[in-house]
Amino acid sequence: MKRIAILAAGLALAGTAQAAQKLGEVQPQRSPEQVYGAVCGYCHGKNVGPVIRGRALPASAVEYIVRHGQNAMPAFRPTEVSPAELKALAAWVEKSSADPKEKGQ
Asked: Which of 10, 30, 32, 64 has the most crowded CB, counting CB atoms within 10 A?
């Protein structure tokens, strides 16, 4: 009975302290813009790889390619781009507008 009370109290605290965050969900450590700038932008948009912003690429495709690589693009491990960061990045890339400063192949 004591364990149930402790569990209930813990869940109540988790619900109030993290109302916007689902229980057990890890929030991204870096914003999508930070990940893009630090990891993706080195090639994409600088005449090394194709421009990916503003193309409405499906988030699921972005996630797959980042984890598995494609052609000259290497795969990125979860230690380089966390699963939460990748999910946020993929959604951001899908909805992003083209940047007129970026150029690509």
From this structure: 32
